[in-house]
Every structure is written in C-alpha cells, then in structure tokens.
Amino acid sequence: MNVDNGRLDHLRAGQGAVENHVIDEFVAGRLSRRDFLRRGAVVGISIPVLGAVLSACGSSTPAPSTTTSSSAPASASGATIKAGIVVPTGQINPLTVADQGGLDMLAQTGEYLCLSDQHLMLQPVLAESWTANTAADVWTFKIRQGVKFHNGAPLTADDVVYTYKLQTDPKKASNALSAFGGALAPSGVKKVDDFTVEFHLEAANGNFPYLTSSDNYNMIIIPNGYDPASWQGSFIGTGPFVMKNYTPKVGATFARNEQYWGTKAVPAATEFTFYDSQTPTILALTGGTIDVVGQFSVSGGEQLLAAGAPYNIIRLKSSAHRELSMRCDQAPFTDPRVRQAVALTLNRPAIVQALFKGFADLGNDSPFAPVFPSTNTSIPQRTQDIAKAKSLLSAAGHPHGFSTQLVTEQLLEIPQYAQIVTQEAKSIGVNIKLKIESSAAYYGKATFGNSDWLDATMSLVDYGHRSVPNVFLTAPLVTTNAKTGTGPWNAAHFNNTQYDGLVKQYVAAVDLTSQRAIAGKIETLLLDQTPIIFAYFYNYLSASAKNVTGVYPTAIGHLFLTKATKS
Amino acid sequence: MIGTPGAPVEAPREVTVAHAPRRAGSTPWRLLLRRPTFIAGAVILLFWITCALFGTAIAPHSPFAQQLLATNMRPSAAHWFGTDQLGRDVFSRVLVGSRSILEIAALATVLGTVLGTALGLVMGYLGGVVDLLVSRIVEAVLAVPLIILALLFVTALGSSVLVITLVVGFIFTPLIARTVRSAVLVESQLDYLSSARLLGENSARVMFVEILPNVMPAILVEFTVRLGYAIFTVVALSFLGLGIQPPTPDWGADITANYGVLPAGYWWETIFPALAIMSLIIGVNLVTDSIEQVLAS
Fold first, then answer.
1. I want to staple B41 with a disulfide (CB 3.0 to 4.6 A). Which of A254, A354, A389, B287 is the partner?
2. What global pTM score does this model have?
C-alpha cells in the first residue's frame, strides 16, 4: 500500500479518536477496502473523507457495485410502477409494525436517520452526519436542514427526539425495543440544538448508528407529538412519496412528493398490491399484472431464476435465517451434549441445496453470518457427524434417544426445514413430533407464557436480516430479565453469564479487530453450548420485469422504488 | 294417535306384531353386482382400502425417506410419480397417504351416522316439543357452512386425528338426523308400529327394534353420501393446514405443501395427490349412486 502520509495526516486532523482508529486499522491492513468503507460509515466518517483516505492510501473509491442482473435502464420516467408484496399483518403503526409488509409500507413515505444499504453500508438520510465520543457511549447526530414533512412542517431535532423517546419507552411496547433494550432509554435522548441530537447510551455501543438506520425498521421519524396509532390514516413522513390510498389487506398507492428535499422520485406513482402467498405474486409478475415482486423464495420461484427468464433478479447476501431453539431449562435439552447431538445430525450443505438451490450460506450455530465483516471465519464449520452425535447422546444418558415436540410456523420453507430436522434427528433415535401452526397462533402474544414460539421445548422461528448481529446476539440469547428488558426473544431460555459478558464486550467494541476477536470467543462458546441451531443464512431475492430497472430492495425487506423506471 | 309414545291403549294379548314387510332380501346385492358403475366404484374403493391397510408394505420407498440432493425429480422409472421438494417419493406418499384420509373419513362418517340416526329416530318418533326444539337447533347448525364449522372447532380444539374425526362426525350428525327423521315419519304412519304399541313395547324398543331396520336403506344411502363429503371435508382441512401434521403422508397436506411450486413446472407433486382424492371421491360416489338406484328400484 503506497501511503501519502502528508495527505493522510491532513485528513486525520479533522477526525476524532474513534475515526482515526478505523483509519489506522485500514492503513495497517487489518481492514479490507470494503470493510473500511463500511466501518468508516458506521463511526461517522463522511463519504468524501472515506474516498480521500482511500486515495491517500493508493486505492480508488469503489463505485457501489450492483447486485442486479438488470440491463441498462431505458428510462421512461413518470411511469407508475406496480409492485407485489406480502400483505401487512396488522395496523401500519410505526410503534408496533413487526412484519415485512408493514415495514415496507412505513418506508414508502417515512425516512430514517440513515439507510443501511445493500452492502450493509450506512448512507445518511435525515441525519447529515454522526460522531461518537471515545467510549462510544454518546453519539451525536446532525439533523438535515430544509426537510419538510408531507404536511409542510419542517423537520427539526424535536421530531427526532419525540420519535426516539416514544420508541425507547418501555411502557409503549414498541417493537424497536428489541434493538434498544439495554442500549438506549428515553432519558438518553437529548436535544442539543434545533438540528443536533445526542444519544447517551446505557452501555457503549460501537454499532449504534445501525440502530438508527433502516435496519431498525420502526424508526422512521414522525412529527413531534404525532400519535403513531393514527399514522395509518396519513402515512405522514418526509419521504419521496405521499400516500394517496391505503386499503388494509388489499393494497396502497403513492404519488411522487413534489416537495421532497432530495432528488425527486422517478416514478410519478407507485401501486402496491398485497398478496398472502408467493404463488399468486409470481403469477402476477409473469402475467404482467405487476412489475416487481418484493421478495420471493427459491422454492416456488424457480421459473424466475431459470436461465434466460425475462426478469431482473436482485440477489442480496443477507443475515436472514431461522433459529431452531432448544429449551436449555427443560429436559432433555438441559444437557449441552444433547443439543450438540441434534445439531450434528444436520447435513447443512444438503439442506442449503434442497431448500435454496445454493442461494444461502451455511450457518455455524451462531448469529455470525458470513455476510458480517465481524464474523470470525477461523472457527471451524460444524458438519454432520452421526457417530459423534450418537456418542454425545449416549454420554448424556440417552443411548436410545428420546421423544420431543418441535413447534413452528407455516411460513416459506420453514415446514420443509422442520421436516428435514425431524428426519435427520431420527438417525440418532430422537423422535421429534412436529406441530406446524399459523404464524399468528405460533407467535401468540410474543411474551413468555403466552407464546408457542417462546414456550415450546423446541421452536423454529424466522429472523429477518440485520446489518450487524447485535439484535441476534442479544434478544434471543442474552439472559432474560424482565426489569431491564433484555433477552425478550430468548426462546431457548439460555442463561449464561459468560456469554452475557462477551456480548457486552462485543457490543461496546468500536473497531473491527476487537469485534472479530470477541466474535471468535462467542462463536466457540455457542458451538459448545448450542442453545440455538443456525443452519443457514439465505439470500434475499427480489425480481422485476425485464423492462423495469432501478428497483432497490434491502435484505431486511424494504422495497424502494424512487429510482425505478419502466421502458 | 300415531306417533304419540306411551299412549294408554289396551292391547289384546293374543295379537302378534305385524312386522313391516321386508323388501325382497336377496335381490339388492345381486342387482348391485350387475351394475358396472357399482363394480367400478367398488374396485376403486377396494384399491384405496388395500393401500390404506398395506400401503407401507406395497410402497416402493419409504414415504418419509428424504433425498435432499434429488428433490423435485420428474416421474421416472425409479420414481413413478417423481419426488417432492424434500426428495421423497411421491408415489409412495400417495399410496400411504390413503390411510389417514380413509381412517378419519370412515370413522367420522360412522360416528355421524350413529349419532344422527339416534337423533333422527328420537325426533321422528317422539315428535312434539322434542322434535320442534331439536329441529330448530339442527336447522341453526345447518345454516352455517359445514367447512366453517369444522374450521372453528379444529382451530379451537387443536389439530389431531381424534379431534378431526370427532369434529367431522359431529358436524355430519344434524344432516343425517334430518334424513333419518324424515324416514321415521313415513314409517310412523304404518300399522306395524300401532301393533308394537298395542303390545306395550317401550319407546326405545319401538325405535331401535321396530323402526330402525326399516329405515336402514335410507341410512345406508346417507352413510355413503356422507362418506364422500367426509373425504372432501378432511382433505379441505388438511389443505388449510389444519389436518394431519407433516411429515405424515396426507393428500391434502401434500397438495398444500407443493402447490407453491406448480408455477415452476413441478406439477407431479400436486397433481398425483389431487388425482388420488378425485378417484376416491368418484369411487365413493359410484357406489353411492348404485346403492341409491337399486334401493329406489
């Protein structure tokens, strides 16, 4: 690496300790170019500075590569783009939305402080910039000026403070608490001036900006004092589209926001039709009723993936996965050897091939997906080993196996995966009886004692994509504590102080090297304990008609159509 | 006072009960066996009953065995009906899948027929307030689409073989009761019942010993008709995800699991279970129609 030290020193001068640490890591070769861009964005180094550092180090700024196979756009701006997405399950309320259809609706008119893009890089949106103190427990966000809500009111720090206090209030039962629990309390949200907000965290968090991004999909900024329960009637936000019509369970239409603060949307309008399953959505695309399918799975979507098929396929590597939890507080899963034995029965490459035709990465029984830069790839991959599984089971006092029940939901490939688990567990004498329920019945009230998801002896649940593993590390694995709100999704009832401590360290770590080192310890511990089986992380797939380009999905489930064109 | 039970009628001791004339006893079976439609229906039914009883022995592969690297294979010599999304042999699953549907549908129909017959006899024979009250309840129940009723009960009680059998049996009870009641009302006009009462026979004996044998043809027809509907109801519940839990082979559940891949061209995973359902219902209907026609003649 040919480093222009003079220029680099000049660039360093304008940065804080945390930012300079990231630059040091890159210069020392411990960060790849992509990781440097990603990590630099997290700690608040602006895009021009990132580019200048790369240049000073003899590297050019990479143009964001496209993951779409689409051809060059033959623009026909002003068109109406028609999309098919999964039906939102409940009211479109920024506080309570917890499903893909709902979050997609939030993001059509609402905007986040920043966007976690397809490459897991943070892009400023309503925040112009952000910085952290050295301890990474106070983050300061500069709010963009000149932004107006759809009702004409200007965006100020008051709106941001109101939104964040609302979403972090434990009394409000916000869905975002799954991310904010133990990280940010309402008292930590402080207005500095009309366009500056400080977040004083409960504990240091090196990835905090991701919690303010589209990753934490509830966090669209709403006007100060606005009742989120009435949001569905207005869809008020600052985004590039305004809502024209929303009919629950049917669809929604949006028109271009001519007063938008940024580059105005290309389509004059968008139309969303809600589908409750994949088959009609794909048929609507192939029949020309819609232009875009928000997401599809490989199973049933093969015709879109066929060579020469007239569709643009967008494939995003993601951290979306399924968690097969085993109750660590209930026999026979109280013994980690039993949990390991079940995990060892799975032939993961075959599962990925059967369920995803290879459009997925192998899981290694920790939330560290290959897509995360912090994942420690030196930890050996767990592979199928029936002999070892039998030996472990025997040592645990179950030489002839045992019987148990696995409860899960009727969603995408999950029933098939559950059947594979039951079949493979039979090879070591473990007889698993399946109970497949509707998602509503399975989740229940989503609280302990009121939810098959959280109460079943074995439970298989879906997790959407996140750009950093923080939520996956905390909500389903950290020791449950109702007072502090930690471990709210701990279906495995895993209780391990060593793990809790390591996660705390990981969350606080600012630099990637430290994160990777701690990740390695966590991965090793989870392989030993195996409270949850993470068998795969599947790719996010979206499709559009060949004549439609510029569609921008995110792996968490957003579908942005602001640059979509139809020829 | 025909139809009024327990009427104080003095009966001479010498009188012997004039049982209702039985229809020519040996001819119905012979008539049935002469009907090609009955033979065809019976052959289909017997085929599926054989599969239900010995399916696991007949099937070329285990219906549970997964080949994760041989999924969605087209029909071939190795797999006559192809393989499904988990690489399981569709032919074997279709053969073995007959067990759950026939087991549940048959048991549920027997249950519905027994309960419906008892209720129909009581309504038709006792008449009066009992008939009025029970008839209104039956009409109220029948006003709700049966599949909705079944869905409500299965959702509330949970899905298991026992629950589905009981639910389908119970929802068929009012239907069968209404038919039996009509038949009993016709029988009530006949002299042999007056004779029975004159002999002082109690209501239960009159209903179950005197009337029941004479309404058996109607009950038999109703049983076969309901069997077809029971198959359809059980399949519908399975299709809606409220039936047999996977990985147990089940036609309705297998259609649900695989119809999503129809657009991808994997037709065999859905079509063969669907054809199996169709053939079973056609078999039952052919037998039903034949019995109805023979009894009518």
1. B287
2. 0.81
